[in-house]
Structure formats: C-alpha cells, structure tokens
Fold these 4 entries.
Entry 1:
Amino acid sequence: MGTDNKDAFPDDGEGPIREVILDPFWIDRLPVTNELFGKFVQETDYLTEAETFGWSFVFWSHIPKKRFNELVEDTVAAAPWWCKVRGASWRFPEGPGSDISSRQNHPVVHVSWNDAVRFCEWSGQRLPTEAEWEYAARGGLVQKIYPWGDQLRPKGKHLCNIWQGEFPREDTGEDGFRGSCPVDAFPPNGFGLYSMTGNTWEWCADWFSPSFHEKASRINPPGPPEGTAKVIKGGSFLCHKSYCNRYRVAARSSNTPDSSLSHMGFRCALSV
C-alpha cells in the first residue's frame, strides 16, 4: 500500500510503501449508478444533503453558458472553476434544466459521505476502508501506478476517464468523454472491477490524515478515530497531470462528510 513515486503528493501522505494485511471482503464491481441510487430514493424517500441544502458544486464548463449567470451563486476563491449552483443535485447534475435520463448507468454524483452511508445501510453494505479500496483497485498487481500497470496509455489506448487538454480551460475529450461516463465504459482490472480510477472520486470509510498511518496497525488499518474530512480515492474526469494527478492507485484526497460535487460518488463493500 502507498507509494514512493516521484509524482506523489507528500502533503497527502501517500507514502511510505507499506505492507498491510486485510481480512477477506467483498466489493462491488461497479460504482453506485444513478439507476441504483434512484431505487434507494424511491423506496426510502431519502433526500440527499445537496437537496436539503438546496445547492451543490458544479464544474464551470459543464454549466450551460446561456444560463451561467442565472444558475451560479458563487465560486470557490481558491478554485474558481467550482461553482455553487442552486438546485444542483444527483437528479439535476448541472442544476435545474439538466437531468439523468440518459445517464442511468453513470455513477451517481452530488452525494455526500453521509448520503453514501445511508445508502449502504439500506443495501446492507458499508463503505470500503481506504486499505480495502486500494487493494481492490490494484487488481492483484503489486506497486503499479495504475490498475493495469505503469503506463497511463499502453499502446496509446485510453483506459480511464480523465482530463485531456489544458486544465481548467479545455477538455479535448480524447478518451471519448467530457464529464462522467458509463461505469463500464473502460475495461475492468484484474479483479473484474470497473472504474477504479478516473470518472468519479469514491468515498472511503476512513477519516483523512496525512500521517496517521505511520503509527496505525498494519492489520485491517481503519484510519484515524476522528477527523474533519473523509478519504476519497480514484480521481475523476477532472484529473490532469498538470493539476490533480490523483488518478494513480495510491493517490488520495479528502473532503468533509457533508460535501457534494459533480465528480464524487462511491461504491460499496461487505465483510465476509
């Protein structure tokens, strides 16, 4: 687990490389899709936190230009490409006027960590720990950068949905997509798991810390007992080497448990 790769972000606590031992577990082959999340909502009448708050963050270029001033209430100072859009939610990913009718097999987005936990309670599952997620993402390979090896595009072939072009100005969509894509659009890894890198970030169970692993147990490491943000893994369709090179298996980031954005989703796990 972890990496000493030159592209690692030291402040994220990606290293050092360490061996951990995990009990057997199940993990879903696919991230939770809009279709499946819709079944959960239909059965429970659940309202996501984005729906309760009345807004969520949407990437600037995905908002219709003609309605930009109408929909955008504010932007994030440190990352102005993130726009606060009133009415954006899992049902309306780019805000009012958008929908998911053609995206039923895309990963659900605009779901917070708290929303993901509620889904897991309904489905009888749980979120994977970071260690479980990373083990699953590696697909049986040892210390490779990506789920398929060390080359991002072996023989020039795109194997995940990330950004091509100049971030954040232009995504050329060379991999076939601008924004999210179907969860099975690219080949699975060695464990038969799809979309383990790129497309959308995935929530993990752990609280985030850049240094806790230095003293944590090497057997089923659970992450810190408390914190302010939860671990997210896998990167997204917005990741680019020039800015957020976190579509590597060992890469990690974090967000607060009540946060929702247009590039964050999750998948479920289950103890054996």
Entry 2:
Amino acid sequence: MKILAVNCGSSSVKCQLFETSLEAIEANLDRQLGRVLIEHIGTPQAVVRCQSGDLERPINSHHEAIEAAVSVVTGAPEEIEAVGHRVVHGGERFSAPVQMDDGVVAEIESLCELAPLHNPENLKGFRAAQAVVPHARHVAVFDTAFHQTLSPKAYVYGLPDDLWRRHRVRRYGFHGSSHRYVASRYAQIHGFARDNYKLITCHLGNGCSVSAVEGGKSVDTSMGFTPLEGLLMGTRSGDIDAGAVLHIMVKEQLTPAEMDVLLNRRSGLYGLSMASNDMRTLLDLCVRGHASARLAVDTFCYRARKYLGAYYAVLNGCDAVIFTGGIGENASAIRAGICESLEALGIQIDPARNEAAVGIEANIARDGAKVEVWVIPTDEGLVIARDTLRALAERHERQQE
C-alpha cells in the first residue's frame, strides 16, 4: 500500500510517501518513495525542499502546499491509498490511531483548546489532503497516544480531584511518534525483547521533550497538559512556577490570551537571548561573546540535564540515553553540554565520536561507560505510515467479523 504521511504546521508541511505492508513492517522492509518539506507557506519566501533541490515558488495555502507535495513525491496521486496525519493532541479519548470521519474530526476540534498551536494546523492539513486526494482513506496518528501508558501517579497534578477530572487537566505528553521510533530502533539495533531495556529519550528541536521508556512503554515524560511544560524550547518557556505566571499577568495587566502568546511564542531560547530561537544561530553568537545567547544555551542544557537525572531515578538506572530531533541529531555542543557532569550516573560521551555524529546513527559514549549514549535520527513519518496501515487493517478485520 502507498501511504502519504503528513506533518502539518502553521507555515510548513512535511510529507513522505511510503510503500509498505504488514509483512514489510515485520521485516523492516518499508520503502520511502519520496519526501518533501514546504516552508514559509503564505510568504514570499515560500520554498519547496526535496531530493532534487530547493525551489522557491508561491505557496499561499496549505491546500497549495499539499498539492505541491503530492506532485513532488509521485507522478500518480491516484495510487495513494491512504494518508496518515500527525495530530498533536488526542486527549484521553484517543490512545491509538483512528480512521478519520466526521465524528473523529469533531473530537479533534474539541481538543484544539488543549493544543491551540497545533491541532488547528493538523486539521488544515487533513482538509487540504482530503481535497487533493479525495479517494484516499485518512488516519489520525496522535502524538499523545504513546504516553497513554503513564500511571496516574505520573500524570496527575496536585489539583482538586473533581476539578482536574472535569476539565481533563492532566499530563498527556507529546512527540510520541518520535520517542516511540527511537526506542524501537534502539531495541532493533540490539536485538532486545521489549521488556529488556530502559531508555531516556531526548527529542530536541524547536519543541523539546524527554521521556523515560521501559520495555518500549512510556512511563514518564516532560511535556504535560500542553506542549508548553518541561524543557526550555525555541519559543516556549518550559517549566515555570504557576505563581510567577499569575504575578506577571497582574503586573503587566495581561489577558489569558496575551499570556499564552508570551509563554508560547516569546519565551524560551528566543526570550532569554532576545536574538533567535534557532540553536545554530545561538551557538554562533556564543562564539562571538553574546552573553544572553550564552545564558539561553546554558539554561537549555541545564534543564535537560536535570530531567536526565530525574528519569534515571524513575527508571532506577538506564541502558541508554538517546538524542534525536533537529538539535539532538546535529548539535554536538548541546549533547556535550547536557551530558556534562553526569559521570556519577555512568553517562560519559567520547568527544571525537560526539563531534562526528551529525545527522547519523551512532553510539557516542566512551568505551567502558556504564550507559550508552546514542544519536538516532527520528523518522516520525515512518511511524505515521505504519500506524496508518495497521489502523486500516484492524478496522477491516472488525468489519469482517
């Protein structure tokens, strides 16, 4: 089956076309037929990035972006039998991928208040793909689903019982497809059974999260009720005292909507540095002696290091730390900064291996280190394609019963 995996953001669309089957998944023989990233949608700087090179062209909407993506990855759109869509927030309702119909779409819309920066954009991608490949079946694959295995003690907040239940205020976790992929890839590399390993997986990009994974299942994760909690991120504050939020709102006379913008779009690396949310830019500024950029980078590494220590305790030790995502896969200086002073936990990286591991799969731990440290490039698109196929196969089986 040919499946298009779609990851849709506010101004970008990433699409990957796969050919796979249940047998191919079992044998790890899925084939990627094409991939494309379209950035800066709706601006004069819109660009289509694909294997044949970058092309600047007008892309004014998500519909045009999906059209362009489909034309790049295949000359025969009618061969696309299914489209898998990344949906960030599935709440408590969705613990597995599901074929999208009016009811499912309505429930995803109801969850937009929990992920206002993401779910609406994911739905834009769905509606655009529906129009471009109307013959295909569409499946939602939820970022939160992987973390449905968290126990109540890991997902509750210290709120009144009736209040958190009534408003669904609990830890949900995100980046599930990425954490799941790198954990399963680690197991595949080592030939482990699913109950034989403990991992701390670090997805570091513009959005960042850390997860404690035991036997292939998430047992804790840094993002919470929304993707705002946890690590310092590109433009998101990460962990902050709720009292500080209330204090700022009073002092600055901010509405909830304005405070939301401050925490989600004006904080994090960008807010601390007042220069950029791009780690590459900040590292360049650090070399030039930019004090605020240095504070942002140091805080980023320190926050991540604290979570590594916390999850080492949660797991009672770990077999490996895994770095993935744009920063995790490419920024050796950040990996070194995070792992600094963790020798007591057996986490030590080899400087030469770390420098060489740019966008490639590699064990960067020192020889003899107690804990392996891996760089594993994520492939959320592959997870989405596989989950799409499985969801459709299970639905077909149910219909045949």
Entry 3:
Amino acid sequence: MSSNSNLFLSIGKPIKDEYGRIIGKVASFALTPNGKFDAAFIEFNDGQFSKQSLDHFKFNGTEVTYISKIKSEANVLCDQIPLIWRKDQALRDLAEKKKISPDIYQELHNSFEGVSNQLKKDAQVLMDELAVEIARCDEAMKSLSYAIVNLELEHEIGQINEENYKSAFAMIQENLKRINAEKSDNEQAKSKLSSVLLGDGSKLDLKPKTPLLNQNQTSELPEPPVVVYVKEVGKAGI
C-alpha cells in the first residue's frame, strides 16, 4: 500500500485494476483504535460489498489501483521458498562446522522442511489458479477477435457508419491490449513459480551442499536440481 496521510480523499472514487479497468468504488475505511488505516470497504461493479486489506491497493491522491491478489501471492511465494532453502543450507553449514549440536540442527531442519513443504503446496495451488486465469484470458481474446471480425463485416456491408466503426474498433483494441498484458503477467508469474518449485539453483545463488552425516555414514545426498528458467511470453494482441 502506498503511504498517504489522507486516504479519505479516495472515498467515493473509482477503483481501477492494474490494466485500467474500473472495478468498483471506495465506500469507507476500517481504522484501528489508534487511528491507523486497517482495511477498505469496497463496492464492486457487480454490486458486491467487501472488506479488503489495504495491502492490495495503491493510493495516489484520489486515484486508487487494485493490485492483483494472485500476482501478489506469487511474488511472496517466489521470495519465501528460496529464503527457507537458504536458511536450511546455512543451518547445514553451521552443523558441519560444529557450531550447533546435531539435535538442534535436526529440530530446526525439520521445522524449515515443514514450512518449505507447505509453501510448495501453496505454490502448486496458485499455479493451478494462474492456469485458470490464463485460460480465461485466452477465451476473452478469442471473443474479442470474433468481435472485430463481425464489426469489420457489418462495416464492410454498410450496416455500421464510419464514426461508430472507429469508436467500436478502438474500444475492442484497447480491451485486447489489457487482456494480453494480463495474460502475459499471469504467464510470467506461473513460470517463476514453476522455476522455484523445480529448485532453480541459478536464481537461489547457492552452491551445492553436502549433507550432515553421522560418523558411520559415507553416502551423500544428491545436489539441489538446477533448471534453466525460460520466460514465457504472451501472444501479441490483434
């Protein structure tokens, strides 16, 4: 959330998403007893009334932008999963240098492993949600493409005059740009999550670690997998 000493200026003002679409209006704010802004009450365009965390908004005077939850969650997971991995690797280093006891190492390692597994489950769920959003964008782009074709046909046979044709064409093109940008963002978020889940060593900047062994053990665990991150690029708009 962007800092703003007078968020009340945005009450009654339209809320736009990151792609410029108006999605609702600010109705009011929830404040803590000490006067700190805690949440926003939003009336969405479909008539639904909802209380939303301010973490999902950017305020700039009277302008309000709603930040995509799914993208925000993806960014958080892309930060947290590698961080837990780094901490677990650092813990292993400390144990190998005999700076912590094996019992403490195992207890903390199990804790990190549990957190990491949960974060990876959350990331997989989010990837499935992103796949649904990407499919929705594809369907929207297909519908808009058909809208252009039908507009062109009716204009060609004289059913639509030049002024209305240009206005409608510009409107459809603008929506195509927005949907294409949204699809590209979702594809990039999904690709980043996939890379993190596969254990992208180049992103984590980690050297391979040997496992903590007991005196009677001689085998080693495999090194963390390294994959090449390929950025997915959305299709160009029509």
Entry 4:
Amino acid sequence: MYQQESITPYTPNANDKARQVEQMFNNIAPTYDRLNHRLSWHIDNGWRRKALLQLQPYRPQHLLDIATGTGDFAIMAADMLQPKRIVGADIAEAMMDIARQKTASRHLQDTISFQRQDCLNLTFDDDTFDAVTAAFGIRNFADLDRGLSEMYRVLKPGGHLSIVELTQPVNFPMRQLFRIYSHSVLPWYGRLLSKDHQAYQYLTRSIEAFPQGEQMVQILHKAGFAKASFRRLTFGICTLYFATK
C-alpha cells in the first residue's frame, strides 16, 4: 500500500476511500473549476496542454480520460488532438453533469461522452483505446497499482498513457514555499468558496503522500508499461508522466 491510499477526505477508514472521494467531489463540484484555476493561478491549463502535446505525434483516435471531473482535459484533447472519440470516466456524477454542460455548449457531444466508472474496475474491453489520459486524478485512487493496471489493460498495444499530477517540489526554496501555501492559503480559500474545509485539507495531504518522479516511473513499469518517463513543471509543483504499452 502506498501512503496516499490510506488518506481519506472525511473519516479515517481506508476501506471506504472510494465512497468518500465520490462524496467529496460531488460536494465541491459547483465550485471546482473556479477554485482549481484560481488556486493554480490559471497555470493548470498550461500543464494540461503540455500533457496533450506528448500525445500529438501519435494522433490517437480513441481516447479514455480517467477521472475526467468537469471535463476540461477531455475538451482540450478534442481541440488539440481532433480524435474520433473521447470517453470521460469518473465516479462523481455531479462533476460529470458539469462536464456534459460544457461539452454541449461547445458542440462536442458527438465526440465526447461521459460514463460513471470505477477506475479500479473499468467496464471496457482489453485493448480498446489508443491513448489514456488523467489529470489530477490518480492521486485519489484507493489502489494505485490496480488503477494503473486497468489503464494498461484497456490500452491497445503500442498505446500511450499521459498523466499530469500535482506533486511536492523537491528543491529549496520551492519545497518550503509550497508547503506554506498548501497548508495555509489553499485550505483557507478552499473552505471559503466550497464550504468543504476537509476537501482541501485532503488535497494537501494526498499531494505530500503521493509517490512521484523516479518512484512513480517504477510503479508504471510494475503495471506493465514498457517505457515510462517523467518531467517536472513549474519548479516541481506539477509532474508529467508518459508511458507506452
């Protein structure tokens, strides 16, 4: 078990993590986009763009966006990659309701669809997708190894996984500055807008506990990926991972 798997939003019951994560995201769905963009100073869209640039040379036509949330990554993938089909998968229906509204407003409903899925037990057949993406979501898995193995399973041979995830900076002084920001400003502002103070305390704790960098590359290899690499962005606040089946 990885440390973040035992961290939960509300009650200290790791066996109940998936249900608590679903409840948390349903609770904060109405303010999620505004909070995320403001708390990251709107840099998060640039991180997503870099993650999708990793896929552009391969021209994937069928994509799965894991932990799709309110659909920002799926919508950007539709614009940048011009695929035939994108499926956004998430456990929180309230988040995907917002994603469906945003997709309809951009007339992308023929390209993007959303499904409630347990990302540890995907219902898709083996070797279904050319690419799998995930933005700021795998940190919430109750079983990281199983979640990555499911991503591997549904990828076609030679398919690619592109992940963008929040991480803790490793170097001075950004590590110290990020700790101050994430332990004071982030939970205070999150509580102010979302009215769920525990959600943004959970965010900070899960970032600090999540494996990153070289360790995450080893975990991707363990899941079966033949190639895996990482690149830190914005002084290590965010990390891109890229893997090939």
